[in-house]
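User: Please run a holo structure prediction.
Assistant: Happy to. Please share the sequence and the ligand.
User: Here you go; the ligand is 4'-deoxy-4'-aminopyridoxal-5'-phosphate.
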Amino acid sequence: GVAFMDGQYLPMSEAKISVLDWGFLHSDATYDTVHVWNGRFFRLDLHLDRFFGGVERLRMKLPYDRKKIESILAACVALSGHKSAYVEMICTRGSSPAFSRDPRQAENRFMAFAIPFGSVANKEQLERGLHVAISETVRIPPTSVDPAIKNYHWLDLVKGLFDAYDVGAETALILDTNGHIAEGPGFNVFVVKDGSLRTPAFGVLPGITRQTVFDLCAEIGLSATAAGISRAELKGADEVFITSTAGGIMPVTRIDDTAIANGHVGSITRRLTDLYWQRHDDPAWS
Ligand code: PMP
């Protein structure tokens, strides 16, 4: 992979930050990950909107404008030589001089990198569907003021992952403060019941892939809403799938010890997955 840092393009192994950067010390940073598929960005504008929104709400200032950032991201991909890649953009608070506690004194830093695309789920998992465990861990929104700020804080999600591995599951879903389903390590979740889709509304990152599912549903006339999902509703769903930039739409066929419906990947999940990948060839969606 190739990284961009301090005005230079570097091999990934040379891209390093100071331990005094508040991004590292306090998780005082925001980031976004977009992917490139066969040489084309997928929904880059939505990712940039979310990134710039987070930067603004954290009262940071980017050293570059949007056009320049777009060209940096494209250059990272081009220099990496990968036709399909994950591209991450990051803005951190930077370090404050003389250990000051005043974030206004720090010089904010922008960096980016492109690494090869490698879906988080393998083919076999996508065919049979994932086994997910519900962890009792409560998702603390990355910033209690605004979960829409995409942030590296993952202590709750990592705890959820260990809970899931302890019971032999492949990944985890954790809860919101009402005890409803929130999200998992790097993904949102959807249930399908009687032909309608639902995804948690509160305390979750507004995922771009989640938005893409809403957009696809609108196109093909499926109802999709954002509203609370209880543990029982999750387990009693006709279909369950999770969504992320890293993995696209991934089917879930088992929650804890319960098989979802007949334990096979559902037809609506398949249809949306097909549409999702078809859109990658559509310039209107780049
Ligand atoms: N929730 C969390 C906590 C995430 O970190 C991510 C992706 N990084 C998502 C959901 C999915 O968001 P997107 O579809 O934009 O990748």
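Helices lie at 22-26, 44-57, 66-80, 123-128, 155-166, 208-220, 231-235, 267-278.
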